[in-house]
Each structure stands twice: as C-alpha cells, then as structure tokens.
C-alpha cells in the first residue's frame, strides 16, 4: 500500500494521543510534527528508506521523502497548524495524492489549554482559520470534503471513531492499538511540555481540566474564541 496519510490539527486537539495510537499499530511509519519542526528549526530529521534518519531542510524535500517511504509501508504524519504552511497552497499538485485528515476539538477547551501551556499565544496560533483554509484547499483538490475527527467523540467512543477513520483512509482497524504503555518518547522531547498528557496516557479517555484563566473570564481569550469559532463550526459539520 503506497499511501501517505496526513492529520492536520489545531494545537491542543488530542492529536498527539492519536499519533500515539498510530505508533502502537506497528504497521505504519509515523512522523511527529515535521512541518512545525521544519518551520521552527529550519531542518527536521525524518526516517530514511534504509531504516536510519535523514535531515530535511525544505517542505518540498519533506513531501518527496514521504512518498519514498510510502513505497515501503504506509506513512502517517501529524502536524499542528499554528502556521499556515504557504508552500502547500503554492504547490497543491505536491499534496494531491496525500490522504488528508483533520482533527478538531471544542475551541473553548483547546484555547484554555493552549493558554495554560503558552500564555503569550497570539490569535493566529489558535489555528482553526489555518486549518479551515487547508481543509478547503484539500476539498478543491480532491473534489470532496476530507475526513474530520471530532476529538470529544473520539474520547467518548474511541473504537467507533477509529474504526470509521480506518475505513475512511483505507487502513485495517486494529482494536488492540487503542491501548498502549505510557512513555516519554524521543520524538516528543523538543516540544515536551505540550505532550505531557500523551506521555502519561494509556488510551483515549476524557478528562476535564480546570484553569484559572479561560475564555469565560478573559477578554483576550474570548476574542480568540469569537474569531475562530466560525471555522470550527464549519469543520465539525464533516466529522465522522
């Protein structure tokens, strides 16, 4: 199966737990946030076709490497969209054969959590606008809306949602991958503070965290919510 599957997530969307589940499958090459790393660092290590690692320094080179890897086995990568990744919009032909998927979470929960980790967060970094723009790009390329995962439903009904996801992207459903051993993985070290919940997790489970500063009591966060909610509302209409 020569397939590259992308998951595009706004920050704090439960996407790292989703990636952890994909790692647990054991039949897919999994890459964690290569475009975020490339944007922040100017380079990113990704798996090589020989089992080692190669250093990538451009988006075009990254996409080409994914396609090489996909000849060996399916590739799954997830990225967060605090950045717009203009290269994808300028070169749609290079992402036309990728299976694009999205994951969205209630913006109040995502924004509250985002601010807790990064109090200097700016409005554009919340990500739903970038995510929706990319969704529309993919819809135009493919001629149909891509798959969207509803994070809250994933946490409530993981077997149903993952089963639906696997059917949508053409992967076998492996229910045993819904549970895993908690671990602090090497690929999470650069941005470790963002992945503490995933590090301690052993499966998908809903938990309500309480924060002192939230969308409900902070004018700046409320303005972020008001700006991004319409994009979330359009995306969630397509959720599986």
What does this structure look like?
The protein is α/β, with parallel strands linked by helices and 240 residues long. It has one domain: Rossmann fold (3-Layer(aba) Sandwich). Helix content is 43%, strand content 14%. It has helices at 15-25, 34-41, 59-70, 86-90, 107-117, 128-142, 151-156, 158-169, 196-200, 219-236; strands spanning 4-9, 29-32, 44-47, 53-56, 75-80, 99-104, 147-150. The strands form two sheets. Strands 2-5-1-6-7 form a five-stranded parallel sheet, sandwiched between helices. A hairpin with a 5-residue loop joins strand 3 (44-47) and strand 4. Helix 5 (107-117) packs across helix 10 (219-236) and helix 6 packs parallel to helix 10. It starts with a strand and ends with a helix.
Could you provide a short overview of the structure?
This protein has 240 residues and is α/β, with parallel strands linked by helices.
């Amino acid at each position: 199966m020569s397939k590259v599957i992308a998951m595009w997530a706004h920050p704090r969307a439960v996407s790292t737990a989703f990636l952890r589940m994909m790692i647990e499958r054991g039949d897919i090459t999994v890459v964690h946030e290569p475009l975020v790393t490339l944007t922040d660092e100017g380079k990113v290590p990704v798996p090589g076709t020989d089992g080692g690692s190669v250093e990538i320094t451009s988006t075009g080179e990254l996409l080409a490497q994914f396609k090489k890897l996909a000849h060996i086995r399916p590739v799954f990568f997830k990225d967060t969209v605090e950045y717009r990744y203009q290269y994808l919009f300028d070169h749609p032909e290079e992402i036309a054969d990728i299976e694009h998927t999205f994951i969205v979470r209630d913006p109040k929960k995502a924004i509250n959590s985002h601010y807790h980790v990064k109090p200097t967060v700016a409005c554009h970094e919340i990500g739903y606008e970038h995510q929706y723009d990319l969704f529309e790009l993919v819809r135009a390329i493919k001629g149909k809306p891509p798959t969207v995962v509803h994070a809250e439903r994933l946490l409530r009904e993981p077997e149903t949602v993952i089963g639906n996801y696997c059917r949508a992207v053409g992967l076998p459903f492996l229910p045993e991958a819904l549970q895993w051993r908690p671990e602090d993985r090497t690929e999470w070290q650069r941005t470790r503070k963002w992945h503490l919940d995933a590090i301690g997790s052993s499966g998908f489970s809903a938990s309500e965290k309480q924060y002192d500063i939230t969308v409900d009591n902070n004018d700046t966060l409320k303005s972020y919510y008001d700006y991004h909610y319409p994009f979330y509302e359009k995306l969630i209409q397509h959720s599986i």
